[in-house]
């Protein structure tokens, strides 16, 4: 028997949705990736960084990703000391738990949202408490004073789609004794975001990613924005070379091409609204979404049946077996053409 920690031995680990090996030939709408390529400036920057023979890769990257902090700071209007870069926002979510929740202490999040918070907490031996949602999209039973060390709020919510209003989040920040982490993975697709709250509350952290709106899921680039003392704590515990050279080059170029980002997001929002209306016209329930995905349930509320029907046609969406979600599916917004094919398939499946 290997001397494994008890909590690691007993945990299941995060189980991502199944994906077939020949996924390249499918319509892939299961993990909220961007259907468009990244900015041409990103590709150029990566090739330049690589150089003709790749010899730049011999050298370690800048350990603090300083240029990225500066570029992100300029973009969001914060001093770079308020920014930390991460190997995907998952890394910074993990480090927030490591920094703020010791073994046996509590972290909380909304269910349904991103269940990976729970997995990350389990690894640290932190306790997990989840809260449901009310019909008017507020957190059910959230105490006047929440004593957990970290509370994660996914806004826009995934997999459901709506954002929480800034005034409501502002109130939550006051009710949290610990840190309130606003996971704004999908913020660039939304009408509003809660970034301003970082200035207003010392316990608020906002996380962002380049995986979705910037089409860079394959490069693993995320970031957090918070008070410098929070950033300093996160800097102590991250891997010291957490972003590779190519990711650093890509990130600066991506953040600087805001025109490309805006156009990409505009197209996705337009397709999302069109697809929402089409689904409703064939009797689907669709939750209004602020992200690049939507949560939709067929008239018979049998999400698995429709998921299987799409699967048989090589269209992959996400079905969750959780009883709260099993009636529907989360469908990422692809190109207009992909969504037209998906709609035609849904009509066929009935
Ligand atoms: N939070 C949410 C809500 C997500 O959906 C995802 C991606 N699936 C992440 C965080 C992690 O994103 P990444 O590590 O690619 O930045």
Keywords:
single chain, 350 residues, alpha/beta, Aspartate Aminotransferase, domain 1, Aspartate Aminotransferase, domain 2, 7-stranded mixed beta sheet, 3-stranded antiparallel beta sheet, 12 helices, globular, binds 4'-deoxy-4'-aminopyridoxal-5'-phosphate
Account of the 3D structure:
The chain is an alpha/beta fold and about 350 residues long. The chain folds into two domains: about 120 residues, Alpha-Beta Complex (Aspartate Aminotransferase, domain 1), CATH 3.90.1150; about 220 residues, Type I PLP-dependent aspartate aminotransferase-like (Major domain) (Aspartate Aminotransferase, domain 2, 3-Layer(aba) Sandwich), CATH 3.40.640. It has twelve helices and twelve strands. The strands form three sheets. It has a seven-stranded mixed β-sheet, with helices on both faces. Helix 3 packs parallel to helix 9. The longest helix has 24 residues. The chain is globular and about 55 Å long. The chain binds 4'-deoxy-4'-aminopyridoxal-5'-phosphate. The site of 4'-deoxy-4'-aminopyridoxal-5'-phosphate has 12 residues, from helix 4.
